[in-house]
Amino acid sequence: MDDDISKWLAAKSGRNDRSIWLPLRMHLEDTSDMMGLLVNQWLPDSEKRAMDLPGDEEELVRMAKLLGGLHDIGKATPLFQSMILQNIDEVGERLDEMGLPVSRASAFVNRKESSHPLAGETVLLKMGFPAGVASVVGAHHGKPRKIINSLTGDLIAEQLSLVSSCHMNYYDSKDMNTSGIWRSLRGRIVDEVLRGSGYAEIKDIPEISYKAQVLFTGLLIMADWIASNTEYFPLISSDDCGDEQNDRSRMQRAWNSLALPECWASSCIAMDDAGFQNRFGFMPNAVQKAMIKAAEQSEHPGIYILEAPMGVGKTEAALAAASIQAGKYRCGGLYFGLPTQATSNGIFPRIESWARSEAEEESGEEGDQVTLGIRLAHGAAEMNDDYRSVFHGTAQINDDGREDTNLIVHPWFEGRKQALLTDFVIGTVDQFLMTALKQKHVMLRHLGIAGKVVIIDECHAYDAYMNQYLEMALCWMGAYGVPVILLSATLPYERRSRLIRSYQQLNPAVPDSEKESWMVSKSYPLLTWTDGRQVNQKRIAMTGGKRMVRILKTEEANLISLLRDKLADGGCAGIIVNTVKRAQTLARTVLKELPDENIIVYHAGFTMEQRAALEKELLRRLGPGSGPEERNHLVVIGTQVIEQSLDIDFDFLVTDLCPVDLLLQRIGRLHRHARHDAFRPVGMKQAVCAVVGAGAEDETEAGSKAVYGEYLLLRTREILPDRILLPTDISELVQDVYDRSFVLQPETERHAEEDYDRKIKDKQKRANAYRLSPPVNQRRRLKQKTIDGMLDEMISNDVEAEACVRDGQDSVEAILLQYVPEKHALTPLCDPSVLLLSDERLSEEEEKLVFRQKIRLPAVFGRGDLIDRVIRELENMTNRWVGTWVRENRLLMGELFMVLDEKGKGILGGYSISYSNRLGFQYEKVGNENENS
Fold first, then answer.
1. Which residues contact 616 (CB under 8 A, 6 or more apart)?
2. How confident is the model over 548-566, as pLDDT tens digits?
3. Domain span at residue 144?
4. Which of 505, 786, 862, 922 is most buried when burial is the number of CB atoms within 10 A of its CB?
5. In terms of Cα–Cα distance, which of 632, 489, 478, 477 is closest to 569?
6. In this structure, what CATH number is given to the domain that contains residue 341?
7. Which residues contact 255 (CB under 8 A, 6 or more apart)?
8. Same-domain pairing of 385 and 282
């Protein structure tokens, strides 16, 4: 046998060209070098510490290069070579001539058990590699090996037993006693990898911890994807084994072409008032100073929970602390998570401005300008004008060697799987919750988040189901040493305790008899934080003004006369209700009874395009810079999206009864902005919030009960006073509603509480089905602490994943258009002047316009008994109307279309449907049976 025969084993073939390929050893070297570069030049120092290898950074580089060099060792098997050589000219014949004939693919059995990642893991275990190293290799396609029989407790024995049933796949021989040429080939490749990575022998390789295996797997997936991209690492001619190709220039060209943004390296370890003012344009208040001081004085990364009023500047407090934490612990980025796309869109300009200031701070006065990456991570990011205005692409180098921009959207990080890998990520909280979800490639999410500072805003806004994922994600962050900052204006103290203990990797539940003072504090504003195992807490003295809000408990029948009276002298009113259906019904009534008022309806039942337009209009007319001419006689009717999102200010507020923490969030939109006393109309100078359904004798509205359950609504109704002093009363009200020991009306509450507890337990149980296990004390029954079995029973795709972490039944999205029969064309309902021919490929501009007409259908259309029918009918509409578009326009491929008739109506799933630019998507059961949304 020729000593160089291993050079002719194949790793990759040309997709449509049999004359090009990539030799296995060449791809292994590409990936190994890429792993080394990523560790040396991209990975943050904080994440290197989280990998907790013994020794210095050189040991980390050795391990990274080793894993890259070994990751495809499972391709050095007759099974894999028999399949790939069918697609490459000459190489199979050359191997045959060199004394290595490869059997036909049909000769092999049990192929699934010997896929190349699993074969690689088995080969390494058989050679004596540490189990954790072998497990990373087995998981490098995004899913670790599944545990077949966890009762045995010996994963190595279980995996090696598979070789006997698949012996032919590893040795091209049915003789169980034959070691064969393949063992020698793999040994030669491994020896070369050991030398290249700096290990003398296998016994010198250290074991890696469970959490380090997760991070190394994420890094290996990233490196393998880059090394497999032919734009960076081109294939070569099949008559060449790559001896002269894989020199340093190949890697350098690839690295230069990839041009990853530099890792953020904050130099800030303290911040005085002037430094704060330079970043944010104003001097820090008491809340911001307390946050800064805690971050400066802490000796270890920890979790910070800031409970403070709406509008006090919690965002700036968190960003200032994030700069300090990143500087002290060498974190390489920021993740800022919010409840909704609207909140993410609203805060993006502020985070972008802060990120630019950080990049400029890092660049300094004399050095080359530093380029950092930014990403808006939600499904409608491309519709955000602020995000689209950021430079998209790799950094451009000027003649003097300086880059011409300091903030970019790098194309490599635009994919869903790579969402968390760029420096600064702003998006919905789903991206963070999915770090606790059993999903393929979840290790990439961990790689992206473990080197950042994490900020989660409005952390009170998640139900019992989402909190299961939030707590597990925090548990992993604590294990990695990721600084986490949680913000809320209305947080029950039980949630505070569970969040802190989850980060500390302790049981979140604590018996009443063991609760410490920090766990039950009702102080407000309040900062609670950890420093190692120590939990600290500080009540913050507020220096700002207080605001009295009068609570008017009313009935819906009085609403029109109340609005008419309040709006008589001008001003604006907001009406926040608990369901979309209710918002639409109420809007029809208000439009009819108050024809002289300007009515805007805002909820989740609008197209992507129109929601963005409505957000802009509301900010223009009700934002901090709005005046009487924009505000007078304006009535906004909406749902919870108003309480969670826009920085808008109402003169008068009406709301459905809802749990007290959310009620206070809604009240936070009332007299939110400081205005001159003469600004507001006479009848609106005092802040008044009318609460519908808050009377002692009122029945709980059916839609509200369906959304929130009756228990919290009953307790909120009982404790709701006639006046609320903000911010003084916030904590007391929230804690009284959520404190189980504070019983208000035992007989009234008992059944509602039992139902509430039953639903919470059901949510927790369902969440646990796809939730990751904690990173500590893994699988006590097993001898090997590896990531094998980590993703058994996982979620299969990204759409399901996003629904899963929000307890959503399957949601259906479709692109909504209207048919224009006289023109034989389709049109977006937002602009009937645009006519689109469905049998012609769309221009790029038309394609984006069509994509922006996407809408998420109400939950009823995603019900288990209806969803298949709905999707089938939408597929029929898609094929009938826009088959050309979904075949030829990349952005529209795989999308579903919903086409309404010339009157804007249609039938879907047994419902009559319609859409209006004023009220949004509407539906009624054929036969006039009403349903709540």
1. none
2. 999 999 999 999 999 999 9
3. 8-251
4. 786
5. 632
6. 3.40.50.300
7. 37
8. yes
